[in-house]
Amino acid sequence: MKPILFLTPVFKEMVWGGDRLHAEFGYDIPGDDTGECWGICAHPNGDAVVTAEGFTGKTLSQLFRERPELFGNIGGDRFPLLIKIIDAKADLSIQVHPNDAYAGSHENGSLGKMECWYVLDCPKDAKLVLGHKAKSQGEVREMIEQGKWEDFLQYVPVKKGDFIQIDPGTVHAITTGCLLLETQQNSDVTYRVYDYGRLSNGKPRELHVQKSIDVILAPAKAPEDMVKHVQNLPKNTLNELISCQYYTVFKLDLEGEMTFEQSYPFFNISVTEGEAALNGTAIKKGDHLILPADFGNVKLEGKAEIIASVAGQMKKI
Ligand code: ZN
Q: Which end of the chain is more exposed for a tag (fewer CB within 10 A), N or C?
């Protein structure tokens, strides 16, 4: 039988972080300013350690290099995805990510970053920064250089259970009180456009204005093309939330029992609510795990909310 690869998350303290990753997920966080739990990660800035018989102590990037057959021999020089839970106790800076081509040539061969968010919780009147109101590249430059933030930024209301796809080149910011699960390309390249003039340890954080202007796309996508309301999906089935070049993300509301065939190169699971048995092994809220290639039949029993993903617009193998 193929092993379930459980992962030990990596935590990141951030000026905008809080303590909900401990209070609500029970993680042993490093401090009350913990902004990110990197649940499934194989990046130089955070590499999760695997727990599974025969592999314990290896990092995910080691395992991806040394045992490619566990990942369906998909090729590539790195594990393609990064999955995080984000606790924003304060507003994050306004930011944008480059695409692969720009990151490759300006950031030492790094990947670009396509990302998507599932809103685990947020305040009643929450709004996220998604896109902008400039009509052209020239207007983007002008509004940023002149600091016309109120005219420039587009705020979009969101609620718990919404799902948001963010293409490279899209201006975005997570706002106070939002708790999100993020599925993204395995990249840590972020350009900070604006930080509300805030100081961190007495100094403003570094901005990347020129690179931001280079990569921001204009005009921006309409909000309704970025936000999906996925609150009432059928239970006990893998509901596809998005399928793009880099990832396919599913939501599963388990209530009782369901089975499916794991015939993707590999299958990422993050449990965001409840608990269940997966082929008899207990999984619970806060667990992150990978079902390797040829895992075969998966039987889930319990009551849980799961966000799962596979790399790319993967055809089953
Ligand atoms: Zn981002």
A: N
State the residue range of the domain holding 50: 5-229
**Res 70: pLDDT:** 96
- The residue ranges of the chain whose pLDDT is under 70 are 314-317
The distance between the two most distant Cα atoms of the chain, rounded to a whole number of Å, is 61
Ligand 1 center to 209 CA (angstroms):
16
CB-neighbour burial class of residue 121 (10 A; exposed 0-12, middle 13-18, buried 19+): middle
Annotated catalytic residues are 192
Q: What domain count does the chain have? A: 2
User: Is the same domain home to 207 and 279?
Assistant: no
Q: Considering Cα of 30, then 35, then 37, then 42, what sign does the dihedral take?
A: negative
Clarify whether residues 91 and 191 are in a common domain. Answer: yes
- Enumerate the H helices of 146-223 as residue ranges: 149-152, 209-215
Residues 202 and 79 grouped into a single domain: yes
Residue 30 CA to ligand 1 center (angstroms) comes to 23
Contact in structure between 94 and 153 (CB atoms under 8 Å): yes
Ligand 1 centroid–CA 96 distance in Å is 6
Give percent helix, percent strand, percent coil of the chain, each to the nearest 5. Answer: 15, 45, 40
Residues 180 and 58 in one domain: yes
The whole-number pLDDT of residue 312 equals 87
Cα 59 to Cα 62: distance, rounded to the nearest angstrom: 5
Q: Are residues 130 and 41 in the same domain?
A: yes
